[in-house]
Design a protein that fits this description.
single chain; 449 residues; mainly alpha; Growth Hormone, Chain: A; two-stranded antiparallel ribbon; two-stranded antiparallel sheet; 20 helices; 74% helix; Lfuc_symporter_FucP
Length: 449
């Protein structure tokens, strides 16, 4: 295979992978991952805050996730085109800039005190995160030898729970603070007094984003001055290596006829919706099952969820280094489905602990589905757009929570509505089960075992 030497010490191969992993650059890219975890977990805090202040039903609160993941869906393909024409580094810096703009919009949003303005700020953040995920998920897998691509991505993704925990901690102490149960407190307020107190509570949403802005600015500066590998597939033309840039139409035609790729994208849609809806409504589930607990106390259960997610990733990484990846994920998905059955059927706090246990089984799902689906794209010149479409599957995080919100409003039971993510997890279990059967029947056609 043709290779291109660079002056920075790594060798780029013709398929875009590197001969070795540039450690500093890989760590720098990996540190981006917890940044979108922080933004995502803060949404779970905002949903609880907005429901009370703006007097929303469960379906309306889901618009927070609709704005968030809708941004991912709309921007992923444009982001991939920018990567194709420029570089992963340029796309990452673009994402950081939009993330900064979105955080900045929380300042006017908190003063205007309208739900729609907050949704605009969240959407702007999502634009930035769409650039970051579209570039970083694929880039992380490309920064080194091909045979370790899935393990590199799983390592980078392992840092996301740390960002999620940080987001919940910031929300717990800076937004919820010592307010107690906001819903209970505001239920006794009326008229101008209620509006004034609600606006005061919305001012608290600014606090975590101030700290996030500082981190983002530092990361932007570091990326600007650090040389980064291009990590793109090339072909030899007139004795020179040139990057392959197929048209969007050619790429979509290739991907549309790739059945394993399509199944992976659909599965990622259901997984994104599953994970988002469980985490979006866990705090609400706690408050519904325990009327004595405060908002801040309820948010602690999300910290437990993210710790479980982190541990689940570590355990899965160990199993996947020894056993078939698809077999490990089949068992993880099946056990996660059973945990959710307990969540929507047992009418006490055991249901909450079952939801936390589900987060343990979430651990390896997203990066494994992503890398496994990208492996189905054997023509690596289509990698950027293929990765972007997988990221677009995050639109499931906008659709599935809205469905669960509608089920909750229709049945009058927040707990029963967890039947929605249970069905999603059952579908994912089926995906990995049949992928494992295919792997056993066609071992030479599967890159990861």
């Amino acid at each position: 295979m043709q290779a291109t030497e660079t002056k920075h010490g790594w060798t780029q191969l013709a398929d875009g992978y590197l001969s070795k992993t540039p450690l500093f650059q890989f760590i720098l890219v990996s540190l981006i991952f917890p940044l979108w975890g922080t933004a995502a977990s803060l949404n779970d805090i905002l949903i609880t805050q907005f429901k009370t202040v703006f007097q929303l039903n469960d379906a309306a609160t889901a618009f927070v996730q609709s704005a968030f993941y809708g941004g991912y869906f709309l921007i992923a393909i444009p982001a991939s085109l920018i990567i194709k024409k420029n570089s992963y580094k340029f796309a990452i810096m673009t994402g950081l800039i939009f993330y900064i703009i979105g955080c900045g919009l929380f300042f006017p949003a908190s003063h205007l005190a309208t739900y729609s303005m907050f949704l605009v700020a969240i959407f702007a953040i999502a634009i930035g995160l769409s650039f970051l995920e579209t570039s970083c998920d694929t880039y992380s897998s490309m920064l080194g030898p091909k045979q370790h691509a899935t393990m590199r991505l799983n390592f980078s993704q392992t840092l996301i729970p740390l960002g999620d925990i940080m987001g919940i901690v910031l929300g717990k102490y800076l937004i919820f603070g010592s307010v107690g149960n906001l819903s209970e407190k505001m239920s006794h307020m009326h008229g101008a007094a209620r509006i004034a107190y609600g606006e005061q509570m919305l001012q608290l949403t600014l606090r975590p984003y101030k700290y996030i802005l500082i981190v983002l600015l530092v990361m932007l500066i570091i990326f600007a001055i650090t040389p980064m590998p291009r990590a793109k597939a090339t072909k030899e033309i007139a004795g020179q290596q040139q990057e392959e840039r197929p048209s969007l139409g050619e790429t979509l035609k290739y991907l549309a006829h790739n059945k394993h790729y399509i199944k992976g994208v659909v599965t990622q849609f259901f997984y994104a919706g599953l994970q988002t809806t469980v985490w979006s409504f866990t705090i609400r589930l706690v408050l519904n099952l325990n009327h004595q607990i405060t908002d801040s106390g309820a948010s602690t259960f999300m910290i437990y969820s993210y710790v479980a997610w982190f541990v689940g990733k570590l355990v899965a990484n160990t199993f996947m280094s020894r056993f078939s990846i698809t077999k490990v994920l089949t068992w993880y998905s099946l056990l996660g489905t059973l945990a959710l059955v307990v969540t929507f059927t047992v009418p006490n706090m055991i249901a909450v602990y079952a939801a936390i246990l589900t987060s343990f089984f979430f651990g390896p799902e997203w990066p494994t589905i992503y890398a496994h689906t990208l492996d189905a794209v054997t023509e690596k010149k289509y990698t950027e757009t293929a990765g972007a479409i997988i990221v677009m599957a995050l639109i499931g995080g906008a659709v599935i929570p809205a469905i669960q919100g509608l089920v909750s409003d229709a049945t009058g039971s927040m707990q029963f509505s967890f039947v929605v993510p249970t069905l999603c997890y059952a579908l994912i279990t089926g995906y990995f089960f049949f992928e494992h059967r295919f792997e056993k029947a066609h071992p030479n056609e599967v890159q990861e075992h």
